[in-house]
């Protein structure tokens, strides 16, 4: 992982206020928590902390909280019955903290760090995501790190593009990105 990034487990109570500001920010519209109260955010992340197949992390940039990362087993959470899960599939969500001083390329650096973290586990064969079909920005980011759209799926809360990224595609995208 890029040495300016690190990831730590999310503490639902200590991090709830920070997360509340992130998930209710207008730029986090696709996170679908715009109207969440602080207790709602605490409850959501307490449930994730207690879940067997879902984990949440705070990503740090130079020691400061900068992004949220969730890892889940799509055979048990989020995509159950919506696709044919394979051994080694890992689901992922990420959210970059809102800022008044955006840094060009930062979000791409974050998704790259998230992918590096997920593929650091040798058991991870593919990363699976299900972004809202309307989220053009994340589709471009996903493509930049090697995701391929498999199909459009209907989830209860949204229409999504089921997309997958193999280790080989991520490595190829990372190599291509380094050559730019």
Strand order of the largest sheet: 1-2-3-4-5-7-6
The biggest sheet amounts to:
7 strands, mixed
User: pLDDT below 50 for ≥5 consecutive residues: which ranges?
Assistant: none
Shape: globular
Secondary structure tally: strands: 7
Overview of the molecule:
The structure is a single chain. This protein has helices spanning 16-23, 38-50, 106-119, 136-144, 167-179, and strands spanning 5-9, 54-61, 64-72, 89-96, 126-129, 148-155, 158-166. Helix 1 crosses helix 2 (38-50). Strand 6 (148-155) and strand 7 form a beta hairpin. It has 180 residues and is α+β, with helices and mostly antiparallel strands. It starts with a strand and ends with a helix. Helix content is 32%, strand content 28%. The model has no long low-confidence stretch (mean pLDDT 91). It contains five helices and seven strands, in the order βααβββαβαββα.
Keywords:
alpha+beta, 5 helices, seven-stranded mixed beta sheet, 28% strand, 180 residues, globular
Give a short synopsis of this structure.
This protein is of the alpha+beta class. The chain contains five helices and seven strands.
